[in-house]
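Methods — Computational structure assignment.
A single polypeptide chain was analysed. Its primary sequence is given first, followed by the predicted tertiary structure written as structure tokens.
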Amino acid sequence: MLNAFEVKVQLTKDRTIDVSLPFGGKKGRKTDVTGVELYSLEPDGCPAVRVYQKRGEWRVGAAGFVPSPAGAMPECWDDIAKQPSWELPRQFQAPGAAIAVNSPDALFGQASPDAIVQEMIAGLRAPAASHSAPSDAGKKRLGIKRAPSAAKPTEEKKPAQSQPSKRPELPPEGVPVSENGRRFAVRPFAEDDLRLAASLPEYQALWLGRLLPEGKRPTAVSIQLAESALMASVMMQPAYRDSGGSILAVFVRRDAVFFAGYKLGRPALWRRCPGVGGYEAMRAAVKKTLGVEEELVDSVLDDSLVDPRPALEPFLHPVLEQMELARAYLESRHSINSERVLLLGLPSGAGQWSRFAEESLKIKVEPADPFAGFALDKGVEIARPQAFLPAIGAALAAMEVES
């Protein structure tokens, strides 16, 4: 079952770095990788996980939160000079590091080939270093979120010689194409007329690739978008493997809910739940509706000290509606019967979500342990395991895991 493919970004004359997307590629060559998520909303720092393989067994050698690098990611080429050096704690100094990054300038989503080509054309006409954000910054068009820094094609009047000489073509599977400082990687879905596209400004990829000090472990071997790493984080889940890689997963983040569909180990669906926040919005609803203090929210959601239905029903109703639409799409388009749905990312309240789904949709929503399928080294203790999904996915995609 193919699970990851890589494209290369040139860092210097003699050095390149791989940019990974899940689902596609060759059998794994790396057996010891630290996955780390940058610029998440986690208050304790950057989630990091060291994953390695020993005698055919997948193990976790370390897991925890590491301090963020100094400074911020560059917003234009001129900021490249402000390059910090970021050294990971000793327990995370594997030979390689896979960096999953949250960037407002990144693009990740499904779209038709024509929509992706239009994004490439827009990149040619709008300078990558321009940061006069238009009024519709962050707007999604045909499934792809526009970078906030990208100007509308009609807003820039350029001399005729600066216009593209020809219409860009959609690259073959897995082949990167760089247009005016943006690097695109495109992967076909489990159907012909949709693609999964990822893009990151090259000045950010360059900065990320130089973040870890030269000559010391770990060496950056993969740069990924956090959403891509999130999608790859299910690869070791027993339910995913038992289904042969054909399943629906729901990822609940602090600020968003995502649906990911898989068919035989390939992406079949990726969608953000519209009009719904993540679990912080759910917690806020519990506090406001039930009048409980912050320190009691987890007890209300997990221990049923107070019936949370009045707070959860308005929040979960649109999520379950969209879950049913995702199930219907996978069944009608791909003949995938999603009676089992994986639920990941919730630090509390997962049992409530399962109960609501079973009552309203008559399906089994299974809360999953992100570290299921791994053996833990002696002494490894994991606080808040659901926070490590992108870090786990980054490491697995970089290792090109196969079942």
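Note: Residues 1-7, 21-28, 124-165 have pLDDT under 50 and may be disordered.
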